[in-house]
Amino acid sequence: MRMVDLIHKKRSGEALNEQEIQFIVGGYTRGDIPDYQMSALLMAIYFNGMTGEEISSLTLAMAGSGEMIDLSAISGVKVDKHSTGGVGDKISLIVGPIVASLGIPVAKMSGRGLGHTGGTVDKLESIPGFQIELTKEAFFEAVNANKIAIVGQSGNLAPADKKMYALRDVTATVDSIPLIASSIMSKKIASGADAIVLDVKIGSGAFMKTVDDARVLARTMVNIGQSLNRNTIAMITDMEQPLGREIGNANEIRESIEVLRGTGDKELTEVAVSVASYMSILGKVFETFEEAQAAIRDIVANGKALETFKRFVASQGGDPNVVDHPELLPTAQYHFDVIAAKDGFVNQIDAEQIGIAAMLLGAGRAKKEDQIDYAVGLTLNKKIGDIVKAGESICTMHANRQDVAEVEAMIHEAYRIESTKPADVQLIYDVIV
Length: 433
Ligand code: URA
Description:
By secondary structure, the chain is of the alpha/beta class. Helices cover 45% and strands 16% of the residues. The strands form 4 sheets. Strands 1-4-5-13 form a 4-stranded mixed β-sheet, with helices on both faces. It has a 4-stranded antiparallel β-sheet with strand order 6-9-11-7. Strand 4 (195-202), helix 10 (211-227) and strand 5 form a beta-alpha-beta unit. The longest helix is centred in the middle third of the chain and has 17 residues, at 211-227. The protein is globular. The structure holds uracil (URA). Uracil binds at residues 165, 174, 179-180, 183-184. Catalyzes phosphorolysis of the pyrimidine nucleosides uridine, thymidine and 2'-deoxyuridine with the formation of the corresponding pyrimidine base and ribose-1-phosphate. Belongs to the thymidine/pyrimidine-nucleoside phosphorylase family.
């Protein structure tokens, strides 16, 4: 087989077969196929798309390029959850303890944040003592004992995807639905879950900007999951504005605790309860969404979800007292308010801009090597639809420095305040099964 012939085949609009895809992914991962040939192939895929069979073969080939985690030492149906990424997205921190309280094992590998989006692992590391690196044995033991453990992704998880993603980033081939879908699903398949709930975000802070594009991506990923015998559901949820009110690390832990206590942001709670409901259906605890939703609200109201969160934190070396004493979490030195210049209603909050503003304060990374400051971040005091009076605070900046004028200007730009009330925000646009 020669790579040049396969590029020609794909360029001509023909489908590649499983052996050809294995040859390409294996050869590229080993370094036998150079970047310039892989770039040409990615561009041909970008323009000509892929069939369902090609996408499944690509997913399996990328998953199999590194370690395939075997979770069989953990009993029960292992249900994973994945978000396509957003700003203020702390759903994993909330749904993990909820579904674990229902007896569903959560053996989760999560990523770090990059650019305007945050990462679950960074947020957890803001809890004093929390360890995100466990040996495989300790990971399995923690899940068997507490039904939940969350660790960092192994360096050898789908290395082909890592290499291809870096190449896509510099060849303008990231926003291709077959490539995004296979990239995400390869890591989920390699992580070993039996079933997967996908949270596909749309809006200003997300990869997908329209519901139609998000539906195609969601359908493509659900088809991959089903074709590889993983029961998969995709929800399409809003990322037009940040999720919840806190953006950062320690402050997102605080907000997650509030939701687990039953006193958190309403919209964030709604999305979390829905994601947890679908996870518990895939985990075969409930049959209907309504049944699941009611039980999940109970598990929050009776304190069980919060208790599970405490046990989970303690089992990974973290200080569980942060739950009742959030002041034990890192706190910023300065708090500055961003003041509304006029009366009106908040019509828009550009999630990407807000994510970048938080990153500039130090809550995120511009480059992989950057250090995070867990204490800093933003609190959105006003969200879409809220009434604002001139002089009121729309957002609070938590900072460890005083020169925040650039960040403040970005936040002003991200907020659009108009005299008319906008339509109600839709939280969940569709569910693809
Ligand atoms: N997230 C991924 O893991 N891969 C993509 O291609 C896009 C988003």
